[in-house]
Amino acid sequence: MKKWLTLFVSMLLIFSLSACSDTASGDSDVVKIGVNLELSGASAVWGVPQKDAIEMLVKQINEDGGINGKKIELVVYDNESSETQSLVVTKKLVEQDKVTAIIGGGTTPTTMPLLPYIEKSKVPVVSVGSGDAISSPAEERHWVFKTPVDNEDISVSIIELLKKENKKNIAFMALNNAYGDSGLKTFESVAKDNGINIIAVEKFGMGDKDMKPQLTKIKGLNPDAIVVWSIPPAASIVNRNYWELKMDNMLIYPAGAGSNAFVELAGKEAAEGTYVAAGKVWVSDQIEDGDVQKEIISKYVKDFESSTKHGASPIDGMAYDAMLLISKAIEKSGDEVTRESIRDNLEKLKNVVGVTGVFNLSEKDHQGLKAEDALMVQVQNGEWVIPE
């Protein structure tokens, strides 16, 4: 009796593990994609438009007949801008909803805690967080990819601007979280290699409402420029405080500030002159005719603004690209779409022209962009332009 009971329990365990593994079947006419984004909380200025971009592309795909006859079904959850909740909803997507792939988290802090679980569960994830450690080294991130430009490439873009403007002494401000830490570590390395001096480092919290104490310290040092590794709304508060203190140092942000909420929350007057390494969405009407991204970006901006009734931004473009890459991997999977086939085919994608850049993925590169994709743009007279 004991022997049969042991056998029965073993069979149940095998069945349970099998049910939680690769559940997408080639026999199904639907591919379920999970979405884990910041739809409330401090990072909702990112997550809400990202969700809109993903849903827009899926609607277009399904209206065109799907991918190889298969429709895309989205399962969307709000991680509430919480690292803990991000892991909770990811487990729900994998174990309860049995999705074939996941988009998210939408930030570095809401993605990093997922990595051990994702690698163990063997579910392909395309993150919209920008931290380099999300997808690198690729051999340790077998199931994880991302669409934002790497912090190293963004740092290179910022350094090139600083060198062009002959700015050598820099103050660095950053969010006191995984995103800010990643940016600081990378920027310090790139700055050192290029003769740029970091004369001050100041941190602040995502929920802080006043960064004047940090900016006042920096003002006393009179640096040539200030690099701020942050996202709205905190980034916008830095900008407004900077303006209120009547500072005139060059002010530069990475792609994380590439949300329409950045200028809206800071105010046009306070945002004037600010630089952001943000890609081409905000300057779609200024892209040269020979640019390979011109067609897709122009169409994206038109479609997004038509379907959502609000402006497109680089941030939602990154989420659009996450769904675009997954759709290309599904297409290459043919009739048999599985978690493993999507993962394997993501790694094989070449010359995929997206909104953020041109993606060339490989076994050693799970992001696939380059420094040139971090285009520097500036606020001039309340509008985003490509600076001369």
SSE diagram, text form:
Layout: H1 2-19, E1 30-37, H2 44-63, E2 71-78, H3 83-96, E3 101-104, H4 115-121, E4 125-127, E5 144-146, H5 151-164, E6 169-175, H6 178-193, E7 197-204, H7 212-221, E8 225-229, H8 234-244, E9 250-253, H9 261-266, H10 268-271, E10 275-277, H11 294-308, H12 314-333, H13 339-346, E11 352-353, E12 358-359, E13 376-380, E14 383-385
Parallel strand pairs: 1-2, 1-3, 3-4, 4-5, 6-7, 6-8, 8-9, 9-10
Antiparallel strand pairs: 10-13, 11-12, 13-14
Helix pairs in contact: 2-12, 5-6, 12-13
Walkthrough of the structure:
- The chain is α/β, with parallel strands linked by helices and 388 residues long.
- The protein has 2 domains: 198 residues, 3-Layer(aba) Sandwich (Rossmann fold), CATH 3.40.50; 128 residues, Rossmann fold (3-Layer(aba) Sandwich).
- It is 42% helix and 17% strand.
- A 7-stranded mixed β-sheet has the order 7-6-8-9-10-13-14, sandwiched between helices. A 5-stranded parallel β-sheet has the order 2-1-3-4-5, with helices on both faces.
- Strand 8, helix 8 and strand 9 form a beta-alpha-beta unit.
- It is globular and about 65 Å long.
- The N and C termini lie far apart (82 Å).
- The N terminus is likely disordered.
